Amino acid sequence: MSDGPRFPRTGTGTGTGTEELEHQKAAITRLGHELRALVEATVRTDASPDTLHRVADGVRTVTGRLTGRRRARGEIPEVDEFPAGPRFYSPVTGAGSPLAPPMRVMAADDGLIGECTLAGTHEGPPGYVHGGVSAMLLDELMGRACAAAGTPGLTVSLQMRYHRPVLLETPLRIIARVTGTDGRKIFVNGSITSRTAAPDASLVTAEGVFVTPDPDSTRALFPGLQRVMARELRG
Ligand SMILES: CCCCCCCCCCCCCCCC(=O)SCCNC(=O)CCNC(=O)[C@H](O)C(C)(C)COP(=O)(O)OP(=O)(O)OC[C@H]1O[C@@H](n2cnc3c(N)ncnc32)[C@H](O)[C@@H]1OP(=O)(O)O
Description:
This protein has five helices and six strands. By secondary structure, it is α+β, with helices and mostly antiparallel strands. A six-stranded antiparallel sheet has the order 1-2-4-5-6-3, with helices on one face. Palmitoyl-CoA binds at residues 7, 83, 139-140, 143-144, 147, 152-157, 183-185, 209, 211, 213-214, 217-218, 222, 225. The site of Palmitoyl-CoA has 24 residues, from helix 3, strand 3, strand 6 and helix 4. Keywords: Apoptosis, Cell membrane, Cell projection, Cytoplasm, Fatty acid metabolism, Hydrolase, Lipid metabolism, Membrane, Transit peptide. This is Acyl-coenzyme A thioesterase THEM4. Its EC number is 3.1.2.2.
């Protein structure tokens, strides 16, 4: 195993009351769901220019209702469990993100499994998933697999192989597994398969190297982490 630093699971503390936090999570999840429906409807609609203008006016009004206090860059939301657990605004897994499929993440015997179904929002070639989106799913799950193994790290190399196009509107399974470590380096494999058609045939595979930043770099890169740790200790 790595001789690099190891990190505890975070985010279970209660700077805000637990019940309040649960209400917040439910509201974030609900808004994320509605926004994803809006984005999907937007990229699939053939509505008239008049309708599109009216909708744009409505969206602008609604956006105005969310522009109060903003989180600062790097500030970790209280609802998050960083680095190993759910992050509500992740563009891959975030229940609150309009960009996220969102991918559900589950523990497996030797790594993590992700599941999601992609649609028009994530289209590349007509009818198929954008290659960059496949890379994003794998990068996220492979990064989460590092953290789940107790060795969180940042991607320094991600080698993608696209064997077959990934169909939209098809349930997908994403797998990530740590295969070894060397000092602060973590080696990870990943794949995407269809859960319904030929589930044993990999559509996309990836090999990644992740690196755990040393403690000084970690402090410099993630100042918000200190506050999360302090929150944990208080909780
Ligand atoms: C609590 C802590 C937080 C940690 C984090 C948690 C994040 C949990 C989020 C989860 C969700 C996931 C999300 C998806 C994952 C992203 O998307 S991460 C974002 C994309 N990646 C980045 O932005 C990383 C940018 N790179 C960097 O900042 C720096 O390279 C790093 C990662 C801080 C490492 O810098 P460094 O400590 O100076 O590393 P350095 O000494 O140069 O290299 C260390 C070792 O790695 C090797 N190496 C470096 N680059 C490469 C390469 N490209 N190929 C092969 N080997 C390489 C070096 O050769 C060296 O090996 P040894 O000589 O030790 O054998």
